[in-house]
Design goal:
two-stranded antiparallel sheet; mainly alpha
């Protein structure tokens, strides 16, 4: 099997650099390789474009992330926060447009998210925007008073130390006395408290508006949120498979056309066309193999296995790590066993080489009755323990009497 693999690799390179069994010059080979790289880049660009054609889970359920953040939020004023995030203050009256992102793509936006979009856009009334502007102005005033207090406190501390040290007032580096600083801080705190009361009233007015209550009612609808979350989960589950399907549909005509051209060129003995079509066939197969590998690594199969293991172990992820630690040596042992028993199996290699009149050790061509290989001097025969005739090494039975033969690795 190993020698067959090696011969296949040799044929692959011969097809890639020879025309009618004659090697091409280095300049031509470099030109072909450069063209291969450009074509390969174009193929990957086409694969990227077609993989974006079907709607992604995020585009199908655009409201899912904001909705989930609201339901998981632990803020006391999360109702006001989510409403303020959906208010628009631009002069052109910007609104949500989930359909715009889906144009030119295959698929439809979730009906619940379209309902979410309509109710969120309804928040942008002139009354709600006026209240929101008042809230922003009041918050700016509170921030201004806090900044003044911070500046006064810094001066108050050093002024108090100057008074304790009985430093003359005309030598002070501060603009206010300690008593005056305390009065200004108290006045500012009173102003902050008044504006904080105003803020609470304005926020309450905004939250209790009919449009806001309709929006909050939708956000707190557990059934609709579950429907969106489940739809998003399923879409994310199948999205890699859908992408691979479209990428396969993109590559299939290219691979079939290159393969047909290569077979025709070989039959008609068109050397140049055979060489170019072979390179194109290889170029078109490389992205397909790459995408299949990506799918097996990150696609829905491994995701399904991961979800199953998490359910099986009750969410105890460290137990999954134990399972991985156990499975990795088992997988390594299986790979080693496969190569030892199949790829590098001594008797299988020997049987294949004897049938093709090749050296049992180095696999180079020899004559039928050569006792030693003229290339590596390896002894091809051993004595049968039953009939004492010479029989092939590493084969299971004597070619004269059929007796079982031990495996001689010498």
């Amino acid at each position: 099997m190993f020698s067959r693999l090696r011969r296949s690799i040799g044929r692959f390179f011969n097809k890639s650099r020879k025309i009618n069994h004659e090697p091409i010059n280095k300049v031509s080979l470099i030109v072909i390789i450069v063209l291969d790289l450009f074509i390969l880049g174009s193929v990957f660009a086409g694969l990227d474009d077609i993989s974006r054609w079907p709607l992604s889970p995020r585009m199908t359920y655009p409201c899912q992330q904001e909705w989930q953040q609201y339901r998981e939020s632990t803020l006391d004023d999360k109702d006001y926060t989510v409403i303020s995030q959906n208010l628009d203050f631009s002069p052109d009256g910007y609104t949500l447009d989930y359909q715009a992102a889906s144009r030119g793509h295959l698929g439809e936006v979730s009906n619940i998210c379209l309902q979410y979009e309509a109710i969120a856009d309804a928040l942008n009334t002139s009354a709600s925007q006026t209240i929101a502007n008042s809230i922003n102005d009041t918050q700016a005033e509170v921030a201004s008073f806090n900044a003044k207090n911070e500046e006064i406190r810094q001066q108050y501390d050093s002024t108090l130390l100057e008074e304790i040290a009985r430093q003359p007032r005309d030598q002070s580096i501060n603009n206010v006395e300690a008593a005056q600083a305390k009065r200004e801080i108290d006045q500012n705190n009173q102003a902050i408290a008044q504006r904080q009361t105003t803020l609470d009233t304005l926020k309450s007015t905004l939250v209790t508006a009919p449009e806001s209550q309709a929006f909050l009612s939708l956000l707190n609808d557990a059934d609709k949120f579950s429907s969106v979350s489940e739809g998003y989960r399923k879409a994310a589950f199948w999205y890699p498979s859908i992408q691979l399907l479209f990428q396969g549909l993109f590559l299939a005509p290219l691979i079939l056309l290159a393969s047909a051209a290569h077979r025709l060129a070989q039959r008609k003995n068109y050397g140049y066309i055979a060489l170019i079509s072979w390179h194109l066939l290889v170029i078109f197969c490389i992205p397909l193999l790459w995408k299949i590998f990506e799918f097996l690594q990150f696609g829905f199969l491994l995701q399904w296995v991961a979800d199953f293991l998490e359910i099986l172990f009750g969410g105890l992820r460290f137990l999954v790590s134990y399972l991985q630690i156990l499975l990795l040596p088992v997988a390594g042992f299986a790979i080693i066993k496969f190569f030892q028993k199949v790829v590098f199996n001594t008797r299988l290699q020997a049987a294949n080489r004897v049938q093709n009149m090749r050296c049992i050790s180095c696999a180079k061509k020899i004559r039928e009755y050569d006792v030693h290989c003229p290339h590596c001097s390896y002894l091809q025969y051993q004595e049968c323990q039953n009939c004492h005739n010479l029989t092939y090494k590493h084969l299971p039975h004597c070619k004269h009497c059929g007796q079982d033969q031990p495996l001689d690795l010498s």
